[in-house]
Amino acid sequence: xxxxxxxxxxxxxxxxxxxxxxxxxxxxxxxxxxxxxxxxxxxxxxxxxxxxxxxxxxxxxxxxxxxxxxxxxxxxxxxxxxxxxxxxxxxxxxxxxxxxxxxxxxxxxxxxxxxxxxxxxxxxxxxxxxxxxxxxxxxxxxxxxxxxxxxxxxxxxxxxxxxxxxxxxxxxxxxxxxxxxxxxxxxxxxxxxxxxxxxxxxxxxxxxxxxxxxxxxxxxxxxxxxxxxxxxxxxxxxxxxxxxxxxxxxxxxxxxxxxxxxxxxxxxxxxxx
Length: 273
Description:
The protein is α/β, with parallel strands linked by helices. The protein has a domain at about 5-15 and about 40-55 and about 110-270: Uracil-DNA glycosylase-like domain (Uracil-DNA Glycosylase, subunit E). About 40% of the residues lie in helices and about 10% in strands. It has 11 helices and 6 strands. The chain has helices spanning about 5-10, 65-70, 75-80, 85-95, 125-130, 140-150, 175-195, 205-210, 215-220, 240-245, 250-270; strands at about 110, 120, 160-165, 200, 225-230, 230-240. It has a 6-stranded mixed sheet with strand order 1-3-2-4-6-5. A hairpin with a 2-residue loop joins strand 5 (about 225-230) and strand 6 (about 230-240). Helix 1 (about 5-10) runs antiparallel to helix 6 (about 140-150).
């Protein structure tokens, strides 16, 4: 770990958790070892559910606000799949497709490099995110920044950050399935526009929203999954949400292992012709 990253973690009081003092039980060959076994792309498992491809019809003349407020959700979904980044952001900001819009201060579409190789997807905005309009800006956001720095990444530089739902659930509760379903087209379009090389899902809600998997997070960790949408097939890994790690410090070692695995997989992807 570089001095810069160490200082970041020291300031947060987290530095001990990101040093693996005891080698964890291997899940196959550990990607953190010096002799990293290459992760063959052809061996990537395909347990992930395949989302249906939303129909892409030509948009009719209408403002983003009008489309977001319509009662015909299927009509909105079809139009979303033809939007560019500015149109998508405007539509998300005006969205009223589920009850989360009632108490939000603002929607939180996402933040980062819109041509990024890395996509990190969390659960939903919290109080600070709702106030500032950017995902992961509270204490969990500072931890996420430290996690990124630990594998030589930085928010906004080849990294895009989004959430399963774009509005804050009351009391920071876990989003309901219906709420994630309402936001799913927005997330699908973000993925389609971005076309990242790797998706990292932060927490169980993100796994449910993106892959449709409802198993335990422990059962999902260490597995190389595939996100499928139309012709897109994007390698996907799962790890803990930073907010969970703040409450469960011992699991930071497991999260570090997941990050090492993600870094090794990305290296394999970019080096594959």
